[in-house]
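Please produce the structure of this protein holding calcium ion.
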Amino acid sequence: MLTMKKTLQTLLFLLGLSAPLAAQVYTTTPLITGLSNPVAFDIAPDGRFFLTQKGGVSLPTTNAQIKVYSAAAVYIGVFYDLTDSVNCDFERGLLGITLDPNFATNHWVYVYYNYNDDSQNGNGDERIRITRFTEVNNVGTQPTNIFDLDVSNSIAGNHVGGNLHFMNNDTSHIFFTIGDLAYQQGNPSLNYANKLTNPYGKHLRINKDGSIPTDNPFYDDGNPLATNCDWIWSYGHRNPFDFCFSPVTDSLYSSENGWNFWDEMNQVTRGKFYGWADCEGNFLNSSSSNPCNVPNAVLPIEDWGSPLPAVTGILYYSSQVMPEFDNHILIADNDYGRIYNITLGNPPAYDQFVSRVQWMDVVSESGGLTTIKQGADGCVYAMKGGYTSNGKIYSICPQNLAINTPSTDATALHLAPNPVENQSALSYQLTESGTVTVRVVDLSGREVAVVFTGTQMAGKQQLTIDAKALNLAAGTYFITVNTGDSQRATKLVITN
Ligand SMILES: [Ca+2]
Ligand SMILES: [Ca+2]
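Below is the modeled complex.
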């Protein structure tokens, strides 16, 4: 038997196959709790969390606040209270939030909300606003409206859209969404979304001072309310809830809530038409069998059938901390609290669907997810939000990523001492023999050094991480152990 096993191992080496590590295990931790109807959050370069609370689900509006928490998830305070300005009824409210890409120097924070100058009875002046604040010692100052649109035709109060983001490689434009405001419940002949003369059912783009970019695809006279709506980036959306960009190509991926049959994920391209209300998913509106045959309609890259999960937060994951998701889309839902893992093909464009699996059911109690983000530490942060008085932000990390949590998992990576000034001993368990590469990567996932590459036998392995020999400056890194078809990572802190 021993000989046969050795022969098999030799054969595996010759075939270039590698040894599996134990499957990755994730730790889900509720970091921030007790939030009242939270919707969205962003993470500052220093790790602080900035989040929005919707303001309730019916009038009168209460606690429509922007709140700040430290990088360690300790509550700092109310950044700004918009309760007297926000209409929270139904899907309206204080919704999206994004920090300026140059936040570290300009301290600008942008929020998207339904404004009502008489929010306590709902009969006031209905508007969608984007307001910019300047952060001073965790407090919002100098509120400046950069987008202010009369939406008094928003009778139904749902399909508001409501998120806003910057591209990764373009710091001068704000992208945001407005849903079709449930106008006529999607009657194709009356619908807003498939017409260029209004901003509803659209992805929109403005300069960050609120002016209109002249290179928008349907720019004509600079007046968004005459002829073409000059803000439009793409059209034919029902309720595009959230969106994200590839950090490499700036491709835009959007989650969209469907009507009867299909939720969608779209890869959104400048100037294209995404079907609604002529089509839902890959089919004609109100049909589950007749294919969408509308000229120029771009079909979704992926869809979810009945019962619709109401897809919400969407994240383009990019890090070697969880390499199993590198260049994957993670997308959350509102109805179950799940996160789906979508594998895309055709790099670096990543414009082809390969597969979708459910990664995990984050929210064990009732409630759904609204927003997911990638932290600087490579972990995923997920917000339980919307119609809940006990909203939370969870961190989802590879097990043993937290250096202060000793592991009881014998197959995990161990580093000791850690933090370390110079030499730390790395140990791990291989379940089979094979080719192994041990790397040091920085917080952005970039390879800094290769510690070891070669074949190792099954069993416990030990290596020395020598910071001076590897020329590693003081800071936080990840040590990754890769066997070709599996990888585990652990955090290493190097001190001076
Ligand atoms: Ca115009
Ligand atoms: Ca569509």
